[in-house]
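Pipeline run #58 for the internal structure catalog. This entry was flagged by the ingest filter as a single-chain record with no existing model, so it goes straight to prediction. Upstream metadata was stripped on purpose; only the residue string is passed forward. Reviewer on rotation: M.T. Logging verbosity set to normal.
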Amino acid sequence: MQERHSYDLGMIGNCAYLALIGKDTDIKWMCMPRFDSSFIFGSLIGGEKGGEFSIKPTSEKYKITQSYIPNTNVLETIVETDEYAYKITDCAPRFRQFDRYYRPQMLIRKIEPLNGLPQLRVVCDPVGDYGQKKLKRERGSSHIRYFGLPETLRLTTNIPINMVMDSSPFVLTKTRYMVMTYGAPLEAELNETAENFISKTVAYWQNWVKSTSIGQHYQEEVIRSSLALKIHQYEDTGGIIASPTMSLPESPGSTRNWDYRYCWMRDTYYTLTAFNNIGHFEEMENYFLYLTNIPMRGKERVQPLYNLVGEGTIVEKELDLPGYMGNQPVRVGNDAYTHIQNDVYGQILLAILPLYTDKRFANMEKSQSAYLLKTILDKIEYTIDEADAGLWEFRNLKQKHAYTHLFQWAGSHAAVKIAHEIGDPDLGKKAEKLLKQAAAHLEKCYAPSRKAYAQAEGVERMDASTLQLIMMNYIPHGSQKAKDHLKALEEDLRVGKGLFYRYKHADDFGEPETTFLICAFWYAEALACVGRTEEAMEAFEEIIGYSNHVGLLSEDVKSTDGSMWGNFPQAYSHVGLVNAAYRINNKLDKPDFLP
């Protein structure tokens, strides 16, 4: 068996920026001022062009231990040699202040000696314009300013400035601090401020976890996934990105290297369901605000994805960078924004349904509800007989996908409820007509020879997205039809106890080489739906074994060796974990004092 490939990275963030920190102490990925801005540190895909921000020992032999402070997004990295040890605490400050959340464009790195006299070297070499621009440096008495970015980047530290400027070795005799700021600099006292911000951030995250609703089983995994999911939300607009990274390959040499730092409409339903399942209302409310800024009026289509501020043009281009482990091309932007994906309208209707049925939203603005509902139903009516690129965004294959019709059916059901709540029977009748049309299309996807629903009309290929037919109760959970459908999917797409391929047929880039983690969690959830709860738990426990050393999940897993691939971490995978755990816990439904 080949050596398992893993992303040895921890993630910190504060809902304003995200950073990925390697076991070697280097900031491998950090974009500012937005998740979809150019990286400031990006050696993950940029190699030497990506800059560096590391705190390494002078000894070539050292051991690394990396973990989170429990129930937080604050990361600790312990570096040990035969002679000494030190600890780095990496923190993206976030806490409540003056009746709002304080989430500055600020990275705090605290370095403290644990034993011996650590000898280390700091390298701080940020870059601009995706590694194409070297930044000019200017030293101050206790800081370094970096010029060449839209706003000033500054590193404030109590390490001797010459040691940092020259990346020369020094002995760590006491706790040192480095605070990097983008835009507004740190003007307060360094040591006290850094300690205060770290302490308040730890308290914020631990209190946030205390308010998280989770079942008896898989608490540790749900907590980590919830924390990861939370910092994928860009709080300024409420948008939630698929992943903080770009161009990490779905499998080595596949050229399936995509930029995932955008907000996919197709994820809306699952993401909001996850936040609802863990009892976090604020994140749901912020995401609804993001959705209200998406252009849904008139005859224009709703795109499959938008950027963090709801803009629609996300032009894809290739960059002159070496790529992750040499995988090219390196793409920024994503042409999927031009695709036709007609499931988005149903996703939006399901997403806004709680505004009308969940009593917690009593004070939400619901004016122009009838106009909005009519607009989206018109779009379903206009596209219901149309072939599209589907959930998996096929670039050269249009079909009438079962998944699309499922969300047209489910979204129309939601529209019936919304029409009833706003007292518009005509829109209710229109929605009922559309859900019948969608169901008729779904039945055309049924393959009698397989006793299962196929990927699309006119084919017999199995597709993991049709697991949703069970999960959303289109196929009743207790029916023989559900059991048969699940069996056909298992026969074609399952590997081991839980890993699942999206599909097995060749697409625009050949046959898929890796399984897709969200599909694995869908499978565990579908098993729970049909009453195969023990198997659901077995599948779930296998799947969570593919997380990295700090519990983060990738997009894809190679079934032959368990390697992690695809963009990382993947919000969609963590959403899948939260929702599957919720479904399994509900099925078990027994007092926590029982074994």
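catalog note: The first helix runs from residue 43 to 46.
catalog note: The radius of gyration is 25 Å.
status: ready for reviewer M.T.
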